[in-house]
Amino acid sequence: MDTLVAKFAAIWALVIKEFQMIWSDPKNRAMILLPPLLMLTVFAFSATFEVNRISMLVYDQDNTPVSRALIDKIANTPYVKHLYFVNNPQELQENIDNEKAFVALTIPQDFGKKIYLEDAPKVQLILDGRKSNTAQVVSGYLTQVFAAFQYEINGVNPPQSPIKISVRNWFNPNLNYQWYIVISFMGVLITVMMLAITALSVAQEKELGTFDQILISPLKPFEILIGKTIPAITVAYMDFSIMLIAGSYIFDIPAESGYLLIYSCIFVFLFSIAGIGLFISTICNTQQQAIFGVFAFLAPTFLLSGFITPIENMPMALQKFSVINPLTYFFRLSRGLFLKNIDSAAIWADVWPLLIIGICTLSFASWFFNKRIN
């Protein structure tokens, strides 16, 4: 009995010691307390499965009081935030291609005449199929709006000759949700891999006591960080290649822009993530702190990237954070590279922010690393 009590006492002493070690470091306290509060706040405002505040194009070939009344009906719904008018199909296609609008409505010339004659008028909806779930939700919303508008005109519910809606989902005609999921998870998984390797690299050296051996080498701080970046990018490339092969042969995901261009753009994305991971590693003294730092960065980055909820549906304050979020640009870039053959201008629009993020974070990590050494 005394032996059992002594063992419990020893275990309890170890428990108390571990609590003291965890709580004694101010950085540990901050890493433990701040992330849950931050995650709860961000998730509550950003994670919503409702679709609203979408941008919509209107190509009104009828241009009658009836067609304008339909447009006003749509504009006054809570689903549409921006409504733009186009004058030709080419302008419509360009705006959908560049993701300046998510849905386009084409009203034919005889729309007003047919709706009064109750002759089943037709409209066409073109949706961006790269976001398959959102496309389905928006199509359902607009179908309800058309039915309500026709009831206001004809006074019959349901209408005897309902509006015929021709729906086209560009870039993903069958709304294959697995394409969207797999492509997005490629970015999420290589982000986790890059952050884990780079964030633990310097912190692990400090904790194992081998950091001083690196400092006495002839390498400069920036060269040390580059040496720690290359292996992480290599491993991430290997993981990405495995996922790319699986996505191609198991899920039949197309690669419209070609694999060379995809790999080139992925390098820029990995470069930006490496800078963030090394910055986390330089400000942490232990691997535990680095893991907490990765978690604190990864969760809001994932939530605010547009993967779960469209960025347009988030509060304006949170939308501004997407500008410095590498995953935001990766999701938009990867959907274009895999599902459509985007042009160089569209690629550059997402590549240059990733370059800026990578240069800034690597430069700041190098400066902070040099400061800690001195």
- The proportion of strand residues reads 5-15%
Categorize the overall geometry: elongated
How many strands, what sense, and barrel or not for the largest sheet?
Answer: 5 strands, mixed
Which stretches are poorly predicted, pLDDT < 50 over at least 5 residues? none
Number of domains: 2
Q: How would you write the strand order of the largest sheet?
A: 2-1-3-4-5
Share of helix, binned: 55-70%
**Whole-number radius of gyration?**
27 Å
The SS-based structural class is alpha/beta
Mean pLDDT equals 77
* Tally of strands: 5
Description:
This protein has 374 residues and is α/β, with parallel strands linked by helices. It has helices at residues 2-24, 26-46, 65-75, 89-97, 111-117, 132-154, 177-208, 211-215, 221-249, 259-283, 287-303, 316-319, 326-339, 344-373; strands spanning 54-60, 80-85, 103-107, 122-128, 164-170. Helix content is 67%, strand content 9%. A five-stranded mixed beta sheet has the order 2-1-3-4-5, sandwiched between helices. Strand 4 (122-128), helix 6 and strand 5 (164-170) form a beta-alpha-beta unit.
